Amino acid sequence: MKLNQYIPSKFTLFIRRLRYYLYGEKFYKKLNYDWNKHQSRFEIINSIIEKKNYKSYLEIGCQADINFSKINISKKIGVDPNDGGTHRMTSDDFFDQNKENFDLIFIDGLHEYEQVKKDIVNSIKHLNKEGVIILHDCLPSKIWHQTIPQTHKSWNGDVWKALVECRTRLDLDTYTCTADHGLGIIFNRKNQNILNLDIKNFKSLKFKDYYDNHNLYMNLISENELYQLINK
User: Which residues contact 194 (CB under 8 A, 6 or more apart)?
Assistant: First the structure.
């Protein structure tokens, strides 16, 4: 979940939230995840790197190097337009000029469906055959954590919608690990559990859809199940 120096002012968040309350979706049930009982994203990433003997890592969105600095790997590149990482640019600009492939790509940039979808598509093009893509903030607990624009200082955005769309693709095997606000896991291989969803505009999905179809849409797995998949 984003808790960063770039969040709007309290007044701006209040006005946005009031506007959303008046004109946006009205659904206030919430999911009860206790993230303190689970491993952190960097612990999981480092475990995967060790298990697969990965050599190269790309991180999209490196705010203050909170995660990037903790990744143990021989070659790592971090992309952020504001701070952290190794490349001061947008992910779009980076992928336009990048010629390299990576074993593990971690996407934690702008948490809006359209940009997340772009980052996934571009990452697939630069992923090694046995590599994996991981996305942060895929499991918002309540509606205020996923509104666009941001209405709360603790914010996941609507990353989940991009992951649901991946679940419908035949060529991507996609899961959500129930750790650290939801880690989307994408393997560049045949989908083992395709989501048959008759929808063309995934941006139009509502939080109620996500809540009512939570397990089905997100294809939830534990950390141990993730490590079993990694070892296949």
Answer: 167, 168, 169, 170
